[in-house]
């Protein structure tokens, strides 16, 4: 009895300890599951939804701002027009009959038209109603009243409210074609109906947007039972916002999160109960055996993720095993979805680089084609990001039409790859021709010329090797300005040579390997040298003289062009200062696109001039059209700051590519350097040569100095004189020389 009593007492004591232990475990767990976890997850879901609705609101407002810019550009077409200027001055009676027609409203997607005289008097106010142009004086007068006083030279645009209706209004001062004069104000407006708003903001099932007549000072987010709503201000042409954009999204994340939280809590609860039952029955060897079996299964799962726990046990342990198996199945399925998503480009659906490598890890590969899509930034500026996204999807779709034996991947923002897994290798030129068929995007037909690199092998090779070789071929095509590069061993050697040059360029300026040659520019009216162009040269200690066309692209790719360009600028300015004792020559220095588009380019140039105590008028910077077009706003800011300080700006290689005559009027320029192809084609009687005289006359009309490059004989020189070109340079006049030799020749030919 004594031993039994002791055993009973011991049993009771352990039970109390067990209950205390369970209470210590279950009470905090219940607090976490029932109180803390739901509150925490609810806050997280609210944060996600707040971010989502703000992002969609920003996108919708950006789309509205894009429409404002479009209406503003349409206004610009009329305001920057001498005929409009003359009408505003009362000297063009036929203007309205020719321009205030239904086609103006329909083609420009605007609803209201207004022109005010320089004194503010309303000259014309109209709208399109039933395909007829009718008077709209009252509302157009209200539109003019909403504009800032005075109206800035760049115009003004925004969203305003009149009564219960919203309008997009844009206005600009009226000037002549050359931007001179102040001839009143041109205004266009578009009614912002719900249909127009839906069209502009691309509403779908993800979000809905509407206009609120109650403006707010900043974005406000409200959580409703089934939706999240963000109200954001829409800027007016002047003054505080008059309208707000009301954007809402369904609370799908929150609803799914609550279900997930409930499932998580349920799973944790079941797991806890099973654990408690197992702990209470720990003396049962069958439980220990099952747990041992689970231990073996989990160890096997670590090696083989497809293995599952043995769930045949009828007790809670079996339920635990089946629940864990279900979770493992769900996690494995989710992991597969995430892996597939990570392997696919979200925009185009093509494989990513990592997805491509995993997809073709054990697949024989014979050829690879890498295509570089050109001018994406320019096209984005012209047509908008959405149109460029559509373009990329169309290009990827065309590559995908080649058949299942080809795998398409997007390697970068502008690089696509086509990998052939079959035995037959494709003809890359045929693929490129098919790819270059014009793209129809809405009302615009966009022609593109791609650059590609192609490699094929008679036997299967690893995909990374093929991609490296195709990239080498692509870089060769870009450097040589060819449509396609076909990989060969010589390209590989040249690529290795380029890497050698890249390593050797490090510190070339401090080792004294760089030098400058100068080619004079002759004024064709006076016959005197007016400037000299600085040309960078590099003499490698073992490789000898490396051509600029070889090492400058290497320096740009390696990020060294900034150092080399600054060295050349310093030396050229210092040499020009020294040359002033003999002749008042300016020095022309070429600017790389990478230099031009650096944030502190203008400030750095002016700082170098101050350090060298050189007047800014001594320097002319030569920029190319292609470098300016990469970021027109930033480039123009730099060029305007430099010109304001006295530095002259020259547009180099004009006419060598897709040159735009509008650039001559829009860019802050002093000089236009005509590409040598103009002169060479003229001398041969080519069709492009007919543009030479027109380009010179146009530049003269715009007050720009013209310099023709590539003068090779006296006939070319005479032709330029006949066209009244300002200046010329070329081998017929003088070859590039060291400064000492150039100044010596100058002293020899100067009249005594």
UniProtKB/TrEMBL annotation:
GO terms for molecular function: cyclic-guanylate-specific phosphodiesterase activity. Residues 364-489 form the GGDEF domain. Residues 285-336 form the HAMP domain. InterPro entries: CHASE4 (IPR007892), Cyclic-di-GMP_PDE-like (IPR050706), EAL_dom (IPR001633), EAL_sf (IPR035919), GGDEF_dom (IPR000160), HAMP_dom (IPR003660), Nucleotide_cyclase (IPR029787), Rev_trsase/Diguanyl_cyclase (IPR043128). PROSITE patterns: EAL, GGDEF, HAMP. Residues 498-750 form the EAL domain. GO terms for cellular component: membrane. GO terms for biological process: signal transduction. This is EAL domain-containing protein. It comes from Deinococcus xianganensis.
């Amino acid at each position: 009895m004594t031993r039994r009593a002791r055993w009973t007492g011991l049993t009771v004591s352990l039970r109390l300890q067990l209950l205390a232990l369970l209470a210590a475990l279950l009470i905090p767990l219940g607090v976490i599951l029932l109180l803390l976890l739901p509150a925490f997850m609810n806050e997280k879901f609210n944060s996600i939804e707040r971010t989502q609705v703000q992002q969609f609101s920003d996108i919708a407002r950006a789309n509205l701002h894009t429409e404002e810019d479009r209406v503003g550009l349409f206004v610009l077409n009329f305001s920057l027009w001498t005929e409009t200027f003359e009408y505003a001055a009362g000297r063009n009676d036929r203007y309205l009959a020719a321009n205030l027609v239904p086609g103006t409203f329909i083609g420009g997607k605007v609803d209201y038209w207004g022109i005010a005289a320089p004194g503010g008097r309303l000259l014309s106010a109209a709208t399109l109603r039933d395909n007829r142009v009718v008077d709209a004086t009252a509302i157009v007068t209200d539109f003019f009243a909403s504009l800032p006083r005075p109206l800035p030279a760049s115009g003004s645009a925004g969203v305003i409210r009149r009564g219960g209706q919203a309008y997009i209004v844009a206005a600009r001062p009226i000037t002549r074609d050359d931007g001179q004069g102040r001839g009143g104000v041109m205004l266009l407006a578009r009614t912002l109906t719900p249909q127009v708003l839906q069209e502009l903001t691309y509403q779908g099932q993800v979000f809905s947007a509407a206009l609120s007549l109650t403006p707010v000072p900043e974005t406000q987010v409200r959580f409703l039972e089934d939706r999240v709503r963000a109200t954001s201000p829409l800027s007016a042409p002047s003054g505080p916002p008059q309208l707000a954009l009301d954007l809402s999204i369904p609370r799908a994340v929150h609803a799914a999160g609550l279900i997930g939280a409930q499932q998580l809590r349920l799973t944790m609860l079941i797991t806890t109960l099973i654990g408690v039952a197992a702990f209470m029955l720990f003396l049962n060897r069958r439980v220990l055996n099952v747990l041992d079996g689970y231990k073996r299964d989990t160890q096997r799962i670590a090696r083989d993720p497809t293995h599952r726990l043995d769930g045949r046990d009828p007790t809670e342990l079996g339920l635990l095993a089946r629940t864990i198996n279900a979770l493992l199945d769900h996690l494995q399925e989710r992991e597969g979805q995430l892996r597939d998503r990570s392997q696919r480009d979200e925009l185009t659906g093509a494989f990513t680089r990592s997805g491509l490598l995993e997809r073709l890890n054990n697949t024989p590969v014979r050829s690879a084609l890498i295509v570089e899509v050109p001018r994406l930034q320019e096209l984005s500026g012209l047509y908008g990001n959405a149109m460029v996204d559509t373009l990329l999807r169309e290009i990827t779709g065309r590559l995908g039409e080649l058949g299942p034996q080809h795998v398409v991947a997007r390697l970068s923002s502008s690089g696509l790859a086509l990998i052939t897994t079959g035995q037959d290798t494709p003809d890359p030129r045929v693929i490129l021709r098919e790819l270059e068929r014009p793209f129809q995007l809405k009302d615009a037909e966009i022609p593109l010329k791609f650059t590609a690199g192609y490699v094929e092998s008679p036997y299967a090779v690893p995909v990374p090797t093929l991609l490296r070789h195709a990239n080498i071929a692509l870089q060769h095509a870009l450097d040589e300005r060819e449509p396609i590069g076909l990989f060969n061993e010589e390209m590989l050697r040249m690529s290795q040579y380029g890497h050698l040059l890249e390593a050797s360029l490090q510190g070339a300026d401090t080792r004294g390997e760089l030098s400058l040659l100068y080619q004079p520019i002759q004024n064709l009216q006076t016959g005197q040298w007016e400037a000299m162009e600085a040309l960078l040269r590099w003499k490698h200690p073992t490789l000898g003289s490396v051509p600029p066309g070889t090492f400058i692209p290497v320096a740009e790719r390696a990020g060294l062009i900034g150092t080399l360009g600054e060295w050349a600028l310093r030396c050229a300015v210092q040499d020009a200062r020294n040359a002033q004792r003999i002749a008042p020559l300016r020095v022309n220095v070429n600017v790389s696109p990478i230099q031009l588009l650096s944030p502190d380019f203008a400030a750095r140039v002016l700082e170098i001039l101050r350090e060298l105590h050189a007047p800014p008028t001594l320097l002319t910077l030569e920029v190319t059209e292609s470098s300016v077009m990469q970021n027109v706003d930033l480039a123009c800011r730099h060029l305007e700051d430099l010109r304001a300080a006295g530095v002259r700006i020259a547009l180099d290689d004009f006419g060598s590519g897709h040159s735009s005559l509008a650039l001559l009027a829009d860019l802050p320029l002093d000089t236009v350097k005509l590409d040598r192809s103009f002169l060479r084609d003229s001398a041969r009687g080519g069709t492009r040569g007919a543009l030479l005289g027109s380009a010179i006359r146009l530049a003269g009309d715009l007050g720009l100095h013209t310099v023709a490059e590539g003068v090779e004989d006296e006939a070319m020189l005479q032709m330029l004189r006949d066209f009244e070109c300002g200046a010329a340079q070329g081998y017929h006049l003088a070859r590039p020389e060291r400064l000492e030799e150039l100044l010596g020749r100058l002293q020899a030919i100067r009249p005594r």
